[in-house]
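Weekly sync, protein design subgroup
Attendees: M.S., D.O., the rotation student, P.L. (late)

Item 1: inverse folding check
M.S. brought a backbone from last month's batch and wanted to see whether the design step gives back something sensible before we order anything. D.O. pointed out we never logged the input encoding, so this time it goes straight into the notes. Structure tokens as presented (90 positions):
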């Protein structure tokens, strides 16, 4: 099983959509609200995996959470770099 196979397709779709929305929106500072709105889907998915009965029973739950976390951390780094900030400055 490859690493990509260890995350359900709907989780990969969620990550890819958010990643693309993030990169497109961050090209223009005026679209920052779009990025914040795009966060709702991955955060809802994470919340469901952590707190709902259905999410807790989902196959590859931990792998899905790890993939979502990794994507969010990578995009956080891109946002900090783009704004010339460090995590300590926030």
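Designed sequence read out in the meeting:
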């Amino acid at each position: 099983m490859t690493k990509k196979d260890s995350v359900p397709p709907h989780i990969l779709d969620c990550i890819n959509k958010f990643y693309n929305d993030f990169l497109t929106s961050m090209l223009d500072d005026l679209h920052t609200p779009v990025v914040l709105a795009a966060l709702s889907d991955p955060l809802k998915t994470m919340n469901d995996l952590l707190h709902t009965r259905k999410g807790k029973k989902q196959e590859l739950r931990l792998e899905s959470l790890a993939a979502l976390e990794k994507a969010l951390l990578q995009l956080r780094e891109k946002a900090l770099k783009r704004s010339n900030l460090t995590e300590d400055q926030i």
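Discussion: The CA atoms of residues 6 and 63 lie 7 Å apart. The first helix runs from residue 9 to 25.
Action: P.L. to compare against the previous round before Friday.
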